[in-house]
Design goal:
heterodimer; A: mainly beta; six-stranded mixed β-sheet; globular; B: mainly beta
Chain lengths: 111, 112
Amino acid sequence: RKEVEQDPGPFNVPEGATVAFNCTYSNSASQSFFWYRQDCRKEPKLLMSVYSSGNEDGRFTAQLNRASQYISLLIRDSKLSDSATYLCVVGYNTNAGKSTFGDGTTLTVKP
Amino acid sequence: DAGVTQSPTHLIKTRGQQVTLRCSPKSGHDTVSWYQQALGQGPQFIFQYYEEEERQRGNFPDRFSGHQFPNYSSELNVNALLLGDSALYLCASRETAGDGYTFGSGTRLTVV
């Protein structure tokens, strides 16, 4: 079993739709959680951190469920520019701690 | 303010050769991690450097080695290249433990 697993996707949605991605992690000692966005043949870019209380950034909402060991990303009012691969990342709050990436979920927003 | 810079951007090597990839972290960042990303997969952790020491290592063979310099820049060395080493190699840095990483644009390595 992989340390970080994501919805297989791909997700194909119309503009304006709401879409949600889930990600589960296996290590209960994980302390840091992030969502990254990666465009085709580009580097991953940090989209948002995920906090225990949940957090929102415009159309994006991230939530963490430590008991069930999963995080989620909700995108409201999808735009064409949201088309990308979304990577779930789990890590540690130490300088010796690695960050583990999921394989990503591909989102295509269509007109 | 330059972000994470990597060189070279593209590289073609022959099986069995050795390669060195370079990374300069974002200003103010002292922790550098290296990742390998194969097509269609998420980045796989190779190793992390902090205070010039390898602090954590992923499931990669000893052919993969690295170094961090006093100015926090880093190198990734791969010996005895295999065809399967063809991938995008990403360097990432962060300022503080618990922060998200900032990635460089990567080095695309092709082994023929």
